[in-house]
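Aim 2 progress update. The chain analyzed this quarter is reproduced below.
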Amino acid sequence: MNFFWNLQRREQIFVVSAGIAVLLILMFLLVIDPLLQRAALLDRQIAAATRQVSELQALQRDYVRQKSVVDRINTQLQQQQKAFSLFSRLEALATQTNIRDKILYMKPTVNTPNEIYNEDSVEVKMEGVTLEQLIQYLYQVENSPQLLKIKRLYIKPRLDSRQILSVIFRVSVFNLKEGTS
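Predicted structure tokens:
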């Protein structure tokens, strides 16, 4: 301390000012700057978390919407399972549209795409139908209350008359497996 008291007044002020400046710089570097960096990091994390919450809310809305669609479809499937036969329904529609005699064969099959649903399918082959008859029949199939879907459709015009068609298509319907609801 003797060194400080041996200095002139102006030099003492300069040394004290330099010491205060060094203390302020050290305080900024060791205390304030890390606090500001931590606050900026927390602000970025809050912004990211806010975006994630928004994304989760959007996903939740989408999930709820899709779940209601699945529940509605499952309800329809449960109601349709009561005394419904895809084969019989296709025959009835063919009778309604007056093309029952044009059907060469109907082959039923059952697929199991997952643990909840069975997919019943019937492959239908028709000969000698007009485009208008085919459209009328397929329209009746697609607009059936049993949620029937046409999976494959192969249309070939006959060589002797281009207006007469040979058609092969597959109609499918999903059913809930036993014990699933």
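The mean pLDDT is 86. The chain has four helices and four strands. These observations will guide the mutagenesis experiments scheduled for the next reporting period.
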